[in-house]
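Dig into what follows:

_____
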Amino acid sequence: MDTSKILTVLTSSEGKLTVSAHGAHRKNSKLAAVTGLLVFSEMTLFKRKDRWTITEARSIEQFIGLRDDLKLLALGTYIAELTEAVSDEDSPNPELLPLCLNALYALSEKIKTPEYVKPAFELRLMAISGFEPLLSLEENNISDESAMEDGILRLSSGALCAADYILSSDAKKLFSFKLSDEALGELSRKTEGFLLAHLDRPFRTLDYYHKI
């Protein structure tokens, strides 16, 4: 039986890497916990013939608060899938890992609800991945589809102010904004639509999140 794991690892210095963890599936393996889903770990990697292997690792943050809430766990896995989708092999984007970790931490520690974390993460992720929208005040009765045409994200005044804050704020204060339920729903709906239109692919974790 093969006891190894093949991992997709996001690093700050090397970008996205495919890494082997030999024996990680073995009972009582020291690598089992540190190579789990949604775990932030410090790893020592060895590269040979374009293949990376973990030689040792220790867990820094396991985001335990996500494990006892199915909705939070579903959103956390969507955040991970989305981050993986915009990451490139051997091409680091230094803003990606902190953004992902901050979003997972905010959810795990119940700092902000999913309704706030999800659109803020999506919008900031698109910006640092080269898909930053132009923000514009929407006209009356405009459809959601028309509100996202030509790279322009048209929002009502409240949602527009929040989107501008998300795109320009310090990374550590990304989730420090408040909106009415109506404006927050609009921001979430249109940000998600903008993201899906520009990445042009489905996300199974997002579909699952919406079913919960």
Summary: The chain has a mean pLDDT of 91.
